[in-house]
Amino acid sequence: MTKQVLNAYKVRLYPIEDQQLFFTKSFGCTRFIWNKMLNDKIEYYKENKTELKNTPAQYKTEFEWLKEVDSLALDNVQQNLRSAYSKFFKQGAGFPKFKKKGQKDSYTTNNQKGTVAVTNTTVKLPRIGHIKAKIHRSINGLIKSATISKTPSGKYYVSLLVETVVSLLPKTHSNIGIDLGLTHFIVLSDGSKVANPKFLASLQDKLGREQKILAKRRLVASNQQRKLSDSKNYQKQRLKVAKVYEKITHTRKDFLHKLSFNIIKNHDVIAIEDLNVKGMVKNRKLAKAISDSSWSTFTTMLAYKAEWYGKALVKIDRWYPSSKTCSGCGHVLTKEELPLSVRSWDCPFCLQNNDRDINASINILNEGLRCLKLKEPLVQGS
Ligand SMILES: [Zn+2]
Known about the structure:
Layout: E1 2-13, H1 17-48, H2 71-90, E2 105-110, E3 117-118, E4 122-125, E5 129-134, E6 142-150, E7 156-167, E8 175-180, E9 186-188, E10 193-194, H3 198-223, H4 232-266, E11 269-273, H5 277-281, H6 286-309, E12 312-316, E13 344-346, E14 353-355, H7 356-374
Parallel strand pairs: 8-11, 11-12
Antiparallel strand pairs: 1-5, 1-7, 2-6, 3-4, 4-5, 6-7, 8-9, 9-10, 13-14
Helix pairs in contact: 1-2, 3-4, 4-6
Bound molecules: zinc ion.
Residues 326, 328-329, 331, 347, 349-350, 352 line the site of zinc ion.
């Protein structure tokens, strides 16, 4: 059986000078039209108490240079603004913000009968043509849209949204529970533990060191009463930090993709805890924050891959006492009986020796299977 899904491919671009100029102009125009339309909406609302229905086309006479960029990019701004407004009114999200230069420079365009295309060495985009690119894997399927972006360290990327057909993976008749480990990245109910990758730890150390240097340079500039934009040393260091950060993001994603795919491939039901990651990510300690956001990315990947490949992901209540319950007999310890420092314990009732994390993942699996039975028709892919 096959299924049609939307898959994102991120490709590094190597634009020549003219093309870079076009991108800069496009980032500028989309940012301008966002800010202009938003501002006019706000002002109009103050006077008329209703929303102004404005479109990018209305601004092209007054600001003729808007005609120099891809008009679909401007249309997408209008759509994004509309969805930001609707999120504000219907979902209680924050009010749309003005965009600043250099913050998330990007624009999105659409494929209209081949205006966006990929060859072995290039990506073709509307109004600008072929741009040299590094294509890692073949892109199969209909390209829907392309989002061009520039990172703080000056690299260009295009993210292509592609309609792809995936085949359901065969059933393995194996189920698994996953616990977010304290000493490991994850611990599985089959007894295996997946370590946090070593390269990630060393990159995190490096990021910490470079950030400290950056803070010092900021202090030096402020002591000399110089603007940060004029301080060459500060700017050089800022670039260095951005590069390490990008490397972490990239390597981490790669690791999480491989891990989540392997779990989905080898099991039919995957049970995890529904953790409150929003609260977790606010943690100030850098290494902790990164591992928490890894967990959130990881569960997102598990969720969509389970749906793609016909497997079931069950999230269990985060208040379920997965660590404190003995997986052998169901006896529940008190908080005092199981402090965080205890890595392994003997159950006072059935005497089973429990490795803290493995025991938790076994409980997560059992609880997951129980939940699945209760609401079976609701779970996708089962
Ligand atoms: Zn027990």
